[in-house]
Amino acid sequence: MHYVLRRLGFYLLAAWASLTMNFVIPRLTPGDPATAMFARFEGRLSPDALVALRAAFGFTEAPWHVQYLTYLKHLLTGDMGLSYAYYPSPVTEVIGTGLLWTVGLAGCAVVISFAVGTTLGVLAAWNRGGWLDSALAPVLAFLGAFPYFWLAMLALYLFGFGLGWFPLRHAYSHDLEPGLTLAFLADMGRHAVLPATSIVVATLGGWMLSMRNTMVAVLGTDTLRLAHAKGLPARQVMWRYAARNALLPNVTGFGMALGFVLSGSLLTEIVFSYPGTGYLLILAVRNQDYPLMQGLFLVITLAVLAANFAVDLLCLWLDPRTRAHA
Amino acid sequence: MRDAIRRLLRQRKAAVGASILLGFLVLALVGPFFVQDPTELLGQPHQPPSGAHLLGTTGQGQDVLAQTVVGARETLAIGFTVGALVTLVGALVGVTAGYLGRRVDDALTLTTNVFLVIPGLPLAIVLGAYLPSGPLRMVVVLTFAGWAWNARIFRSEALSLRGRDFVAAAVVAGESHARIITRELLPNMASLVASSFIGNTLYAVGAQVGLEFLGLGDVGAVTWGTNLYWAGNDAALLTRSWWIFVPTGLCIALVGFSLTLLSSAIDELTNPALRLPPRAPEARPAATPVHLAPEAGALLSVRELSIEFTTEGGLTRAVDQVSLDIAPGEILGLAGESGSGKSTLGSALLRLLPPAAAITQGRVFFEGVDVTALSPEALRAFRWSRVSMVFQSAMSALNPVLPLGEQFHDTLAAHDRTGSRAASYARARELLAMVGLKPELVDAWPHQLSGGMRQRVGIALALALEPRLIVMDEPTTALDVVVQKELLQRVVELKARLGFAILFITHDLPLLLALADRVGILQAGKLVEVDTAQRLRTEARHPYTRLLLSSFPHLGADDVPPPAADVLEQATATNKPGLAALPGGRR
Fold it and tell me: How many CB contacts within 8 angstroms connect chain A with chain B?
């Protein structure tokens, strides 16, 4: 329990740090969002409007600490300001649906990729020098060197535009009413195949390689020697003794790589105009929609923190030694 | 250092990676002088590859080849710059934290961990959105978002180096922190710096391309990322113009792949376990005379057994034509220095040799059955049920993620000796009690036990299937004297009760002379002498045996074998010459 509380405390601290960075960055750097937006209108806005805009963004003449407290108060009440690109929708509303799509797409893809990659890593290490180890691993490593979004472009080009097997954009066909109907779910699945597959293909090699390497290390330990000496069936030695022990550092690594993988998935969404947070991010960048950009940064960060906490709990369940200190 | 680089290049991975990377560096440096102006609108938009434009034209009519070649320059320049900066910042933060420790470490580690869990891309976007556009912005943003991972690695390296003797010596000698860090720590991190730099460059190229694709680069510049940004904007997919985005993507992947190859080559250089182990030597059955046969009535008969290892310098013979017998219920001791082949011989009885080793000739008969000829399935059934083993490292040999009961259950179930999990647990409780542990420990995890307790669990496990022979490979070496004595007493009692034989391997000759019925002396893989413990004490024939005996000064030839009850006490006491050398030899 102590361990869980300590981790929770850490994530709260990390959340506070990102909130604060979100506040500090626009104020430390040259230029502010209101001035940038004002410049875009090239004199079509009156100077009064600029003051109003600055106030709307929280850039008042008040001292920093007052601005900071106001900022925190707004956040606590779920107020991230109004989106400029979707004016006058509040940022929270714009992000809300986007987050759902991202969690669904990237979440599924990452979990599938980790599960498959880890299994391949176990098999590759068990059969050192076999075809899985000497042929598939380099191929996956090569695929992993492509930017995720580029693989997405290629997949879309070949299977969307070229062969016409899959829809070209969006998360579902717009002539369908969203709901829990079989037709809608099937349609959603069809839309998710290409983006999800390109994320899986891009990340598979990484998981496989890291699991293979820890597994190789575990295979050389006395735990494995004893397991073989006891005359256990090979399958049991491989999974229950070797893989089970090699999994622990990889689950920790999974938590740490989440932010990185999510970043890649966000770019994949853009290629497919998938209506998740990544697609919103590019809209925000292109329209210089600062409130939306910052809101996205916060929401994505909080989601990653939550996922990391879940991974910590998973480690706790997997490792009796961590449990002992908990 | 030069030697390390030479070894690195000998590896195929490193050679391939380095050549690809070098090729791109040359392309980035001189390529732009040989192609057309990448920004000029030279032809019709969306033209497929042709003689005039080898890779076709973009959606605005620029030459794709020119854009790809020129794009390499800024992309790689930013990539390597950020790679170096991230390594520098990470190393500074990490080494400072790891070296200074305490509060500085707490503060820096906390900051590092916070940055680690904040996703890089959104952070880079928020920071990038407020900075003036240009290559400098990219460098700042990527360094800010990416330093943490490195700091973590360098910190743990600094921590482990700080504990080493040469650093401790420098601290005691009163050298300044700066000098210790630059003279003692950093030179020892050369390979880590190299692999981090490569890893960071990989990160930098990928993240840079991603940000530029989003439009957060300088969209007027020509880089691989902006090429893809324009490909997206100019509807490369819609117009089926694959040539606009494919060449750039391939270049990015090739650079990334070459960096991955290099870093994996460095990993293998520093961590030999990742290298493919050398193939075990082939058995030479022709060299084994057909007449080899087990001794009548012997439990175990080893006949002219040779074991060889494949090493970098060729084959090494670890065990050289050894023959020995063990009678039912006998304790045979095997003594020798480290490297004499005694542990290898012990493992070979269960055919538990490391991947690089193999039995190249000879036979092992157990109850008349040739163990060297068993099929994999027969071997599996043979292991543990006929011959079991106690490792020196039984403490680390237990599976850390399974409770003890499960590890007993696995063993019993693998040999069909249990009806149910509950029956296994009952048997495990019984076995734990036999070695003097509380039966409740059946639900404990290995990490909850002391070293001595784990060693007892190791013995309980070895007894689980009631084998006829137990190989004990330095089972007490890692334990303190008191625990050692208790454990050996328990073993002798159990042997008397259950009647198994023991092959006891140790470098501790006095212990063997007290414990074993017969003792064999191994020297450089050869069994130089086997005799009863009593005769070895008084009339050892081989000069090596006499040398070994004389290295324990209190074991004179006139030593009278003590009565059985005191055997172990004396044996364990002789481990500590300081105590045993006291007048009277006993406490």
Answer: 237
Cβ-count burial of A43 within 10 angstroms (0-12 exposed, 13-18 middle, 19+ buried)? exposed
**Angstrom distance (rounded) from CA B375 to CA B511:** 37
User: What single-letter DSSP state applies at residue B281?
Assistant: P
What tens digit of pLDDT does each residue of B346-394 get? Answer: 999 999 998 889 999 899 999 989 998 899 999 999 999 999 999 877 6
B470 CA to chain A: closest CA distance, Å? 12
CB-nearest to B448 from A22, A230, A324 is A324
CA separation, residue B24 to residues B27, B87, B204, B222, B258 (Å): 5, 22, 16, 16, 10
What is the pTM (predicted TM-score) of this model?
Answer: 0.85
Half-sphere exposure of B344 (CA within 13 A, CB side): 28
DSSP 3-state of B495: helix
DSSP one-letter code for B441 = G
- For residue B46, the tally of other CB atoms under 10 A from its CB is 20
Using one digit for the tens of pLDDT, what is the confidence trace for B3-62? 666 666 667 888 888 999 999 899 888 887 887 777 777 777 777 777 777 777 776 777
Q: Nearest CB to A231: which of B232, B242, B383?
A: B383
Q: Which of A142, A230, A289, A315 should be substituted to probe chain B, the one whose Cβ sees the most B Cβ atoms within 10 Å?
A: A230
- Chain B residue with minimum CA distance to A215: B274
The residues, ordered by sequence, that sit 6+ positions from B274 with a Cβ below 8 Å of its Cβ are A213, A216, B267, B268
CA dist B255 and B203 (Å) reads 11
Q: Provide ipTM, 2 decimals.
A: 0.85
